[in-house]
Amino acid sequence: MKLLLLILFSIFSQSIVTPKQVEPVVTQKQVEHSIHYWQHALRLDDLDIYGLIVPLNKLPDGTTGASKCSFSTCEIRVLQPSDYVKLENNTLEGKEILNDIENTIVHELVHIRLRKLSDIYKTKTIECIITEECTYAEEYVVVRITSALLYGRESQLK
Ligand SMILES: [Zn+2]
Question: How close is the Cα of 67 to the center of ligand 1, in Å?
Answer without folding.
Answer: 9
